[in-house]
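WARN  no MSA supplied for this record, continuing single-sequence
INFO  ligand: 2-acetamido-2-deoxy-beta-D-glucopyranose
INFO  echoing inputs
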Amino acid sequence: MAPWAAVVVWLLAESAWCASHLKFPSGFKFGAATSAYQVEGAWNTSGKTPSTWDTLTHNRPQLITDGSSGDVACDSYHQWKDDIQIASELGLDFYRFSISWPRLMPTSFPDEINEDGRRYYDNLINGLLDKGIEPIITMYHWDLPQRLQDHGGWSNPLIVEWFEEYARVLYKLFGDRVKNWVTINEPFTICTIGYAIGAFSSGVHDPEVGTYLCIKNVVMAHAKAWRLYHKEYRKQFKGRVGISHQLFYLHPTSEEDEEIASLAHEHYYGLYSHPVFSKEGGWPPGIEKVIEKNSKMQGFTRSRLPAFTDEEKELAKGAYDFYGFNYYTSRKIRRRRDGESLGQLSPMRNIKELDAILEVDRGWDRAACFWFYVYPEGIRKLLSWVKNQYGDVEIVITENGYSTKPESGSNDYDRIKYYRDHLEQVLLAIHEDKVNITGYTAWSLIDNFEWNDGYTTKFGLYEVNFDDPNRQRTPRASAKYYKNVIQTNNIEIPKKFSTITDEL
Ligand SMILES: *[C@@H]1O[C@H](CO)[C@@H](O)[C@H](O)[C@H]1NC(C)=O
Ligand SMILES: *[C@@H]1O[C@H](CO)[C@@H](O)[C@H](O)[C@H]1NC(C)=O
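INFO  complex generated
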């Protein structure tokens, strides 16, 4: 960022100094997150077998902006003590990380537990607990064992059982110490984005059919894992199991677009959430009808959206302890105009099923990722959307954060501004809209392998030196800001920002 821009941000912060005196309620928890493939490295050591991300980055490096991979990444497999140290430095209540399925279970199945993998996660969990930091585990953050992908991955209904078996191993090994579990991270990214672009995880391109097979299987896999805990482990371990959904707000372009915006929310988030979180269960009826109608018109004899049996519907309904909520960006939505082309199909640009166009507002600032435009009000609107759809479900914000270019270094005032403005909207959601939000998670604790962006965009509160064999972690200004928020329960950017930078 140019120096003048920092001044502008600073002035904005000054003018906002008095805007908000709202506080997070007592018991509210702050954390930060990472995921296994993005930070661990050690892709082929200590008995780990390949995941879909190893395969994708090695076989199709052209899909990654800088042709890189997570082979070494932040080397958290060896530098985990540093990660605990900085989580402690920040004063985090919890650290959310994910387990690499093929590291713990090299065959993908419970016939073999990799002792090195088990020791790694034990060390991480115990080290966090020693520092008074709660470990929150994501079971699945996109690095599917390649062996399971070879058998169809998320489009094979058997994955529901494979995932249940995996969850059982996790509960057995770590359930005595881990009390909050996220089954699956961002099913929307796995199924809707993944099968639409074909350049992600599975590498399979099939938006028309693949997406919906994936959605149903993800919902059922989550439900089975939740039921398993409920039936066999809850009594003993007294923990909770949720799922983390990524949502971006779809703002109607005009009043006429409100109906399409509502259907689009059902399509992008309701398909994943309604079967689990709604009172009636099953697919959201509006979008279910649309997909059925489109399928018939296209000559399919049945809907491309697979039906639930009554038994499946009952199994999924109510299978949650909290709603994990990830937010980064928003779009405006409108109907396609007569004669207008939908353009290149992309879930961030259009929704073919609804004949709708997604755009950005010219007034929205842009972060470093191509998809990332900043609209803080979007997070509040979506939190209300969840409440309106599913009632007073407890929401844990499991990700929110901002990307910068590598050259912007550690003086990341724009990231601070992003966090401040979004935390303000979260406070408004809690106090004005009475949304039941109990925690907030910054993405990410450290710079890491940012999927198709490789190392060209940075999300870390801590900068990682990827040229250093030890991958040294250095706090950015935003780390100091976030630490201050946690310590003081005050989101405002301290007046003498330079002092706080020196001090912390
Ligand atoms: C692991 O992968 C690295 C490349 O990232 C390679 O140099 C090394 O030989 C591999 N080690 C084994 C044991 O296969
Ligand atoms: C928030 O959710 C928790 C867990 O379901 C529940 O115990 C609590 O009563 C809810 N709070 C409100 C204000 O609805």
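The CA atoms of residues 462 and 475 lie 4 Å apart.
INFO  checksum written, moving to next record
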